[in-house]
Amino acid sequence: MRELTCIGCPLGCSLRVFEENGQLRVEGNTCPRGEAYAKNEVLCPKRTVTSTVAIHGGTVNRLSVRTQTDIPKDKIFACMEQIKAVSVEAPAAIGDVILPDVAGTGVALIATKDVKKK
Amino acid sequence: MRTHDLIVIGGGPAGLAAALSARRAGVQDVLILERDHVLGGILNQCIHNGFGLHTFKEELTGPEYAARFIAQVQEESIPYRLGATVISISREKCVTYVSREEGLVQVQAKALILAMGCRERPRGALNIPGSRPAGIFSAGTAQRLMNVEGYEVGKEVVILGSGDIGLIMARRMTLEGAKVKVVAELMPYSGGLKRNIVQCLDDFGIPLKLSHTVVEIHGKERLTGVTLAQVDENRRPIPGTEEYYACDTLLLSVGLLPENELTRALDVSMSRVTNGPEVDDRLQTDCEGVFACGNVLHVHDLVDYVSEEAALAGRNAAAYILSRQPAGSVVKITADSGVRYTVPQKLDPEHMADTVTVRFRVADVYRDRFVCVYCNGERIRRIKKRVLAPGEMEQVILKKSELPQPLQSLRICTEVE
Asked: Most buried among B95, B125, B305, B330, using CB within 10 Å?
């Protein structure tokens, strides 16, 4: 059994997810969104990771980045390890691909800020 | 003296949206004054995602959201000054600012939009006993040091206050390798959005201790630890519940204060609840031609609503400049029975738009209540709410067609069954 808090709305229902005969059963939800959220969180939870990488020769020292789409939650720290090792040269623009495939997820890491050359 | 039709003070999300909508409503001569060296305000350091779901129907990071508005300001060729700090404004709408390039400058405007945002409540406002070592930061300061300047802020962290910035920083510091030991919240409920509690604390197993506060700071040069204690219903520490946490960093996420030093000189009525100016449904202050929007007016949870509110201020400032409509008589909007405040605080029933969005916050966490609107003592609206929380801004949209004429009183409150 897993306990979760639904994030679908401010109500924040306390959800319990049970596995029975290979099926998931959700308790505590008050709407269908809660059930879908709970099942998704148990089967394949995903998150967008945002951070910064070093940028040289630009007007600032840090370039903010994010994963282009959600990645599996258990890859967050592997993703961060790769992000920490990256440094780029200015200029950079929003949407620039910083890493084409972060932590083997098939998802690109992209810039979220425009940084001009100094 | 140099003159402009409209001066917008602040180039953050509110100022950008206000300037854009004023320009699109026909005001050619708009100037944005921004004290930082870039536009975008606080969004520049909010590198997390979750912005723009209402405005752009997609989930953006703070810098991306800001960039969309900055690009529009540049397309419209709206002039702005960076590194320009406004030091005073007058009821006559004379603005004095200083900048490195221009020195001390006085400019005259026909209308002003106040969009100065807010700042964090500091340690000095909390009465936490103990020494004054390094390592105690407001959460937003730590966010800037980390996300913009690239410093490692600390390794072992305790966070006081469960406001959204504190929650976001709990996740951010965890991702950067710090150990966030606990988030302590004085109130019996969190001031942050549910989604942030789940995705910033629960995801990483960070405990949230409600009804707890910091009762002692340890350390001389650098913070070495804090003592937490549980508080009773009067928010006083309960003896015997003290618990020591070793840490080198304490982040404070204990509230935001609208930055209204400039506004006060206008001698307009201020709300004691929002700490912002009182405004009518055009978002105009008591001083004719001076409008306010965004966090300087009241602290928002979502930037999307800031942009929407600021666009309204911009349109109304434009209408004021272009036709100089005199204000009609206003009716005060009374907030009570669980509604702490409303924005706007006043409504001009004769000249109001077809719909007016009234935003408000409630005083406590309520379940299964109704939000009610009374006009001239009669209830015209009763909206069922399964949950209301102080951390989530609420709104009712008033329709001009549903208000009785003449409108003598308007009241927004909560009611139990």
From this structure: B95
